[in-house]
Design goal:
The complex is a heterodimer of chains A (111) and B (115). Chain A has 111 residues and is mainly β. Helix content of chain A is 0%, strand content 59%. In chain A, a hairpin with a 5-residue loop joins strand 9 and strand 10. Chain B is mostly beta strands and 115 residues long. The chains are: A mainly beta (111), B mainly beta (115).
């Protein structure tokens, strides 16, 4: 499969804690992207990290990329109840014209 | 605010019906995509289009067709709906590959139930 795989499948934390989600993939990539999906809605683009970058920040989000291990992580710091959603990684693979999405991590932040 | 609009949030159709799912984007994007999302399977690409009247099969095109007569509109057609096509359908658009870096913009999704 060309899809990425997120780990864990589900994560439950208390408000204020940090949440870390991981993504592994199998092929060479141009970039890797993270998306968020609220229940029953479409996906929203959060952040993109290029293959020559190792770390990127956006507000409370921190993304890392290790192309040697073909893995990425998304860290959400100081989580809020409003962060409750599913998070997906998507890979822009070399030679492909579309993104390949993982199966997602369901994050629940308990107030 | 730029967006991708899917014509229906919820749709119930009968087995054997021809179903049209419409998607319109206002960002002048070249690429448009149709995915279906099922529990445990993630998002799977049905078809995509990188230009008007152009289309490419994705991973699961069987039972579906698409139409792109205008740049801003990409329609997904279920020729004869079946119960295994009950799913959430997501439309997305993006800039051309040479301008990679902005990600996809998704519509809100259409939850289709075939009875």
């Amino acid at each position: 499969s060309q899809q990425g795989e997120e780990d864990p499948q589900a994560l439950s934390i208390q408000e204020g804690e940090n949440a870390t989600m991981n993504c592994s993939y199998k092929t060479s990539i141009n970039n890797l992207q993270w998306y968020r999906q609220n229940s029953g809605r479409g996906l929203v683009h959060l952040i993109l990290i290029r293959s020559n970058e190792r770390e990127k920040h956006s507000g409370r989000l921190r993304v890392t990329l290790d192309t040697s291990k073909k893995s990425s992580s998304l860290l959400i710091t100081a989580s809020r109840a409003a962060d409750t959603a599913s998070y997906f990684c998507a890979t822009d693979q070399t030679g492909a014209n579309n993104l390949f999405f993982g199966t997602g991590t369901r994050l629940t932040v308990i107030p | 605010d730029v967006k991708v609009t899917q014509s229906s949030r919820y749709l119930v159709k009968r087995t054997g019906e021809k179903v049209f799912l419409e998607c319109v984007q206002d960002m002048d994007h070249e690429n448009m995509f149709w995915y279906r999302q099922d529990p445990g399977l993630g998002l799977r690409l049905i078809y995509f289009s990188y230009d008007v009247k152009m289309k490419e099969k994705g991973d699961i095109p069987e039972g579906y067709s698409v139409s792109r007569e205008k740049k801003e509109r990409f329609s997904l057609i279920l020729e004869s709906a079946s119960t295994n096509q009950t799913s959430m359908y997501l439309c997305a658009s993006s800039q051309i590959p040479g301008q990679r870096g902005s990600g996809y913009t998704f519509g809100s999704g259409t939850r289709l139930t075939v009875v």
